[in-house]
Please model this.
Amino acid sequence: MSIGTLAMACLVLGEIDRISDFLDAGTDDTGLLLDRESLPKRIDRKRTPKSSSKSQDNATPIDDGDDEEGVGF
Model:
């Protein structure tokens, strides 16, 4: 069924305001379920190669802004 046919039926029945209910993706339970199933189960970070111990000795510590509680503002 096309959207035009559905809109015309709603217009004839006096329910033109219900078209927004049909098109609202947030209320589409089937679509939301399909989207949730297609999400990845795990997210893997790209691994960086380990550097040699010589380069780690000369490296300065990087301040990433995190404190002991894990908050970094």
